[in-house]
Amino acid sequence: MVGGVRVVLVGTQHPGNIGSAARAMKTMGLDALFLVAPERYPDREANALAAGADDVLDAARVCATLDEALGDCRLVLATTARRRSVPMPEFAPAEAAGRVVAAQREGTDVALVFGRERTGLENDELQRCHAAIRIPANPGYSSLNLAAAVQVVAYEWRVASLAAGLVAGEVQALPASDPGPAPDPDERPATHAELESFFEHLARFLDAIDFHKGKAPDMVTQRLRRLFLRAQPDPRELRILRGILSDAQRQLR
Q1: Fewer CB near the terminus (10 Å): N or C of the chain?
Q2: How far apart are CA 129 and CA 229, in angstroms?
Q3: For the segment 61-106, what is each residue's pLDDT rounded down to a tens digit?
Q4: CA-wise closest residue to 110 among 178, 189, 23
Q5: Each residue of 207-226: pLDDT tens digit?
Q6: Residues 6+ apart with CB under 8 A from 227
Q7: pTM strictly above 0.85
Q8: What is the DSSP letter of 212?
Q9: Distance CA 21, CA 28 (A)
Q10: Domains of the chain from N-terminus onward
Q11: Strand arrangement of the beta sheet that strand 32-36 belongs to
């Protein structure tokens, strides 16, 4: 059982960039495109610049929110050309591709998230990602076109996939290892949806005990998110944590 890879474009402003991104995906063998609140889509300009990747566009899923697009993914990587203020692990594209392929071989679904053309991803969107892929662009001019960024990341994924024997291609692939039995879902990292539900529960609990003492909860919330995203708890561990929170809430009442 091999996990899938989806490309998630958030708040795309120009439909031509959606088409160009679809073309970049198809050339590297990716076909799962998720669009979060695009400003214009569907649009003929997207099909024109897809240059034959219309099947990727036809199968694209349009989502109202990033959470909806990430729902069942267990590894979420944000892509950026510059360092962000949100503290999170950063990988070069090739290193990130290796991690994606390793996750796929464990049956994990992965999301590669790309932000808006002008402003990229907002901080609250970055908070939903396990790590960042930082493309080492020219620091004096790091304005990388959206489709070009998709092409860079998709290319590195294909190289890693060929080496791991996950996809067929003209490059000689290494023999794939025996995948063995399918992993227990409770032993894999929790999905994005499961983690978000836990974070909401934790936030309600902290409010109930007045943990923030009237101060803004943002910094604490960010650090707790990073802690649990780094730990990658599995669903069973999350159920234990939520059981502790629920029992504590009952005691408070």
Answers
A1: C
A2: 8
A3: 999 999 999 999 999 999 987 666 678 899 999 999 999 999 999 9
A4: 189
A5: 999 999 999 999 999 999 99
A6: none
A7: yes
A8: T
A9: 11
A10: 5-164 (3.40.1280.10), 185-252 (1.10.8.590)
A11: 61-63, 32-36, 5-10, 110-114, 75-80, 131-134, 90-91
Assign residue 176 a region (left: φ > 0; alpha: ψ between -120 and 50; beta: otherwise). Answer: beta
Q: What is the token pair recorded at 56?
A: 């990727």
Distance between CA atoms of residues 32 and 205, nearest Å: 37
76 phi and psi angles, rounded to 5 deg: -125, 120
Could you give the CA distance from residue 147 to residue 144 in angstroms, rounded to a whole number?
A: 8
Question: Is the distance from CB of 5 to CB of 150 less than 8 angstroms?
Answer: no
Given the structure tokens 């399918």, which residue do they identify? 182
Closest among 147, 82, 153, 143 to 111, alpha carbons compared: 153
Q: Annotate 215-228 with DSSP letters as a single string.
A: S--HHHHHHHHHHH
CA atoms within 13 A on the CB side of 166: 25
Closest CA to 225 of 115, 123, 121, 96: 123
Helix (H) or strand (E) holding 63: strand 61-63
The C-alpha angle 221, 207, 68, rounded to 5 degrees, equals: 55
Q: Is there a contact between 67 and 194 (Cβ–Cβ < 8 Å)?
A: no
Integer-rounded Cα radius of gyration of the chain: 19
